[in-house]
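Whiteboard transcription, Tuesday session. T.W. wrote the structure tokens on the left side:
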């Protein structure tokens, strides 16, 4: 009975609900958790034989019928089907795909699965040490706030490929030695040279391609870096330099301090026609963060020519716009 609260592991919970919709399916864990990262959301692919719309709508309806979930939203994108937050604040990106004839038809899901297989094949018996090294790099990038494509920095797979690129070039006894080498190597790297692990074709087409190019392991002429800007890239380069010049490795994990208790994000967007959809997606991200921290966000939108501006916070927003706190 999924209406009664017990502590259920995420995979078991997803399968418990899926069993009420489809008899035969398989699941795969993709994303960072496939590489031993546990302090992140779950990216789960379910593969079955019924239509995707039918499965997604039934699953969404069932999430509304149980108190195990406190947030669920159908997402239309290249991969995501459902975005869910459990009562234990576990975030799940559930991707359901219908199996074709002996294959998965969604090329983006195929890519997410296949790149994991390629990495494991490249590493063989060193996979566990690699995962430990990647955990250190990811922790550093998160702590220094240079992680996440939605913020204009490098996404998880980019940091993974940078880790892999160095890991397969040299021998490392432990993650501490790797970490020092990683910082020195990329602090002095010539970034006009693409990171190309699988020797695939490289075509620099966009503005960001000419800033940093990390080639996909599976798709020709594809840069996995998204939304990078010259400003955010310079911040990343500066963090490489700061960390590489720091003798005490413990000090490189010192957190940055925020100067204000509200967040301002400016999004340059020339495509005016679908701004409503983008606002909804951004609002969804804000609410997910707020729900996890048991706060109610105040969101103030501004539109000017080619950008959005929104604020999230309470105290500063109230003072800035003279909003009574009981109205927030």
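and on the right, the sequence the group agreed on:
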């Amino acid at each position: 009975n999924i209406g009664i609260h017990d502590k259920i592991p995420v995979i078991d919970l997803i399968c418990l609900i899926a069993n009420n919709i489809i008899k035969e399916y398989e699941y795969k864990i993709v994303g960072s958790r496939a590489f031993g990262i546990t302090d992140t959301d779950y990216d789960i692919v379910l593969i079955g034989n019924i239509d995707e719309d039918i499965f997604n709508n039934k699953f969404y309806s069932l999430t509304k019928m149980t108190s195990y979930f406190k947030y669920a939203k159908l997402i239309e994108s290249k991969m995501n089907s459902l975005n869910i937050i459990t009562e234990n604040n576990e975030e799940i990106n559930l991707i359901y795909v219908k199996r074709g004839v002996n294959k998965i038809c969604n090329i983006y899901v195929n890519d997410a699965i296949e790149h994991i297989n390629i990495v494991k094949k490249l590493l063989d018996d060193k996979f566990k040490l690699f995962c430990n090294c990647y955990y250190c790099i990811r922790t550093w990038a998160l702590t220094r706030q240079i992680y996440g494509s939605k913020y204009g920095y490098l996404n998880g797979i980019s940091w993974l490929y940078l880790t892999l690129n160095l890991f397969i070039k040299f021998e490392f006894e432990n993650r501490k030695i790797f970490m020092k080498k990683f910082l020195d190597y990329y602090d002095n790297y010539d970034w006009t040279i693409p990171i190309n692990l699988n020797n695939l074709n490289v075509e620099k087409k966009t503005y960001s391609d000419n800033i940093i190019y990390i080639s996909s392991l599976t798709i020709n002429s594809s840069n996995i870096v998204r939304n990078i800007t010259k400003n955010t890239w310079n911040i990343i380069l500066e963090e490489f330099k700061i960390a590489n010049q720091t003798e005490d490795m413990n000090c490189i994990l010192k957190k940055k301090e925020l100067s204000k208790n509200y967040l301002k994000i400016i999004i340059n967007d020339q495509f005016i026609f679908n701004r409503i959809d983008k606002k909804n997606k951004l609002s969804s991200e804000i609410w997910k963060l707020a729900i996890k921290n048991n706060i109610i966000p105040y969101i103030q939108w501004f539109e000017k020519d080619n950008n959005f501006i929104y604020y999230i916070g309470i105290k500063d927003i109230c003072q800035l716009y003279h909003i009574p706190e009981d109205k927030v």
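Someone added at the bottom: The chain is about 35% helix and 15% strand.
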